[in-house]
Amino acid sequence: MKINDAGKLAVAVVGTELVGFIGTIWTTPAITSGWYANLAKPEFSPPNWIFAPVWTTLFAMMGVAVFLVWKKDFGRKSVKIALATFLVQLMLNIGWSAIFFGKQSIGGALIEIIFLWLAIFATILSFAKISRSAAWLLAPYILWVSFAGYLNFAIWTLN
Fold first, then answer.
1. Cα–Cα distances in angstroms (integers) from residue 12 to residues 66, 67, 74, 120, in the given order
2. Residues 22/17/32/101 CA torsion (nearest 10 deg)
3. CATH number of the domain within which 22 lies
4. Which residue range is the domain that position 135 belongs to?
5. Which of 56, 61, 123, 125 has the most Cβ atoms closer than 10 angstroms to its Cβ?
6. CA distances from 151 to 110, 112, 130, 134, 146 (A)
7. 117/125 Cα distance (integer angstroms)
8. What is this structure's pTM?
């Protein structure tokens, strides 16, 4: 069964949003239990309410980027490599939530976010070979993860 472009777009966006939702398995309990609230945080730490809309938007943009790559021709080796690279960074994204919030390991999450950043960068490079628009859609994501890495470092330092 061949999926048309509208179907591919829906699968890509809904799929990435669902992966983003998986992270809340660890995030929500850590925030509601007070663990995260009791951490010393830097002055530039955003309010908790900002994270959900930012991440929802970023995951939607990731979904559109995946769609732009997927529709180019799934049979091409470069497309398969780009999508595999995307899946790796997506798993690392989930891993950060599991380590930081689930394991409550700030230092472990700091190490993990470095690998996540590198995987996002590799994804941007691989997407750029197929669709510049897809690569640019990931720019806000790597910027946010850069900020999150700096925030993770600051929290680790303070605690």
1. 6, 6, 13, 17
2. 50
3. 1.20.1260.100
4. 5-158
5. 123
6. 9, 14, 32, 27, 9
7. 12
8. 0.94
